[in-house]
């Protein structure tokens, strides 16, 4: 598991390779990732947006951004945590992701970025 803390918000990432699948008549490798967000700060915060850079060793970098995560904009009290699972498709068997969440401190209304550590996406065969 990979972890990073920004302004008292801990991001933990666990990845999994889920095999291959055809999309648009092209073979893709399917990866899932589970992200846990833990509020270690003393303030109530809300996740408002996400920004991802997805690196595929055989393709251009893909940028994904938008409101919330998996249709949610979670609010975390101090010591709360929120976990979600998502995934991506790569044309190659190796890649990586990194990004950030935009959050707002609901007590001061300060908006800030919480960084998501770079994590590797690698097929099981490459790990042996």
TrEMBL record:
Pfam families: DUF525 (PF04379). Residues 3-128 form the ApaG domain. NCBIfam families: PRK05461.1. This is Co2+/Mg2+ efflux protein ApaG.
């Amino acid at each position: 598991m990979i972890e990073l803390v920004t302004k008292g918000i801990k991001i933990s990432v666990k990845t999994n390779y889920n095999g291959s699948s055809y999309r648009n008549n092209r073979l893709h490798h399917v990866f899932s990732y589970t992200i846990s967000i833990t509020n270690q700060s003393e303030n109530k915060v809300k996740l408002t947006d996400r920004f991802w850079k997805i690196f595929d060793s055989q393709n251009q970098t893909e940028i994904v951004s938008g409101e919330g995560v998996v249709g949610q904009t979670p609010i975390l009290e101090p010591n709360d945590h929120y976990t979600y699972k998502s995934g991506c498709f790569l044309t190659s068997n190796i890649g990586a992701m990194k990004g950030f969440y935009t959050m707002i401190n609901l007590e001061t209304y300060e908006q800030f970025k919480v960084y998501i550590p770079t994590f590797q996406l690698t097929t099981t065969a490459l790990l042996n």
